[in-house]
Design goal:
This protein is α+β, with helices and mostly antiparallel strands. The protein has helices at residues 2-34, 43-47, 166-170, 204-214, 266-270, 337-342, and strands at 52-57, 62-66, 69-81, 95-106, 112-114, 119-121, 126-128, 148-150, 155-165, 177-180, 184-186, 189-190, 197-199, 227-242, 246-260, 275-286, 297-302, 307-309, 316-317, 326-335, 345-353, 359-368.
Length: 370
């Protein structure tokens, strides 16, 4: 009887041990599956170095719509190659490589020519262009800094890579790194529609700041260096339609707290180290026979003590809207913080002007905080 009990006990121990061993293997396997792999599978062979993934973004949600061409970044990563075969212009430096898995689709019926997108950073707008040195031929999307030509309805996938030194990457640790949408020519016409520079986080520290920036309307405040910090305060939905010849649909409003750059002249002009920005999201339809420049949209914001006008250098949108076409414009007005704090609903006059300065369309709007 004791022998039987001993055998049963031994079998139980073996079963538990097997289950634990199997569970451990399963956990290890799951961890292996979660571990990101190199986007450029040729990177180690072509650099002659072991490569360590320093940062990986599996779902960046980056899409540019430029006319009828869609440009998407599906995922991207930053890798370190300690023993790299050095690029000629970066000899002796520690080298990092930014790899982006991308796709470009031409949804028009004509041939589209797309220029390569680039990374911009720093107060002086330092540009970094694609580098195909370590890509296999089948992974190359844009031939070295040359344009990509797509037939009507054609889509191509590939990898874009940017080679950076440690010093260059260090200077990009904040979220003020932008990824520029490509300039597109369809048929004989260069697209002049709205181009958005998207914040690009290259490490975990900047990821939250990038998410916050992506929630804000893309005016030109941070992109053009007028503002060094920006915080979303409130936003509201409006859906107000204005005009006939130039139709405006004011979709919504955002209020943000901004810290002007020291050399942007906004501090001296408004006599304040921080300001509140009101930005309107406006859809435009041009029903005239002539091209329309959204810069001819003007706004005046009325408060108890002040009157503020739109800041054209901070506003952003289409450069020109052809007859019969639609477009987008983000119009920005700056105000003192005390006005935002004390007023619950703002009175704003919105106008569309002719080239001679006379108004074509006019409307008075009530802009709530939320």
């Amino acid at each position: 009887m004791k022998k039987i009990r001993l055998i049963v006990l031994l079998l139980s121990i073996l079963l538990v041990s097997g289950a634990c061993s199997h569970g451990g293997t399963a956990r290890e396997s799951a961890e292996e599956e979660k571990k990101p792999v190199l986007i450029n599978g040729e990177l180690e062979r072509r650099t002659g170095s072991d490569v360590e993934i320093m940062y990986h973004n599996e779902d960046p949600n980056i899409t540019f719509q430029q006319g009828d061409v869609t440009f998407t970044v599906d995922k991207y990563q930053v890798s370190y190659a300690p023993d790299i075969i050095f690029p000629a212009d970066k000899e002796g430096a520690k080298i990092y490589i930014v790899s982006l898995q991308t796709s470009v689709e031409n949804q028009s019926e004509e041939t589209a020519v797309i220029r390569p997108p680039y990374i911009i950073h720093g107060e002086n707008d330092d540009f970094h262009y694609i580098d195909n040195s370590y890509l296999a031929d089948e992974s190359i999307l844009f031939p070295d800094t040359l344009d990509l030509s797509l037939q009507g309805g054609e889509k191509q996938d590939g990898v874009l890579e940017y080679v950076l030194t440690q010093e260059e990457l260090k200077s990009m640790e904040d979220a003020n790194v932008r990824y520029s949408a490509p300039v597109v020519t369809i048929g004989d016409k260069e697209e002049t529609s709205f181009i958005r520079d998207v914040p690009l986080g290259l490490n975990e520290q900047s990821e939250e700041a990038v998410k916050a920036q992506n929630e804000m309307y893309p005016d030109r405040s941070i992109q053009d260096g007028f503002v060094i910090d920006k915080e979303l305060l409130s936003q509201s939905s409006i859906e107000k339609k204005i005009g006939d010849e130039i139709q405006l649909n004011v979709r919504g409003a955002q209020f943000t707290r901004i810290q002007p750059a020291p050399d942007a002249n906004l501090i001296d002009f408004y006599n304040a180290s921080s300001l509140t920005a009101l930005t309107l999201d406006i859809d435009i339809k041009n029903n005239t026979a002539d091209p329309f420049d959204p810069a001819y949209i003007g706004a005046t914001l009325h408060t108890d003590d002040n009157m503020y006008f739109d800041e054209i250098l901070l506003s952003n949108g289409d450069l020109e809207i052809s007859p019969g076409d639609s477009g987008k414009y983000y119009l920005t007005v700056l105000m003192e913080n005390k006005d935002y704090q004390t007023i619950e609903q703002f009175d704003l006059d919105l106008s569309v002007y002719k080239e001679d300065g006379h108004p074509l369309e006019e409307a008075a709007l009530k802009i709530p905080k939320e």
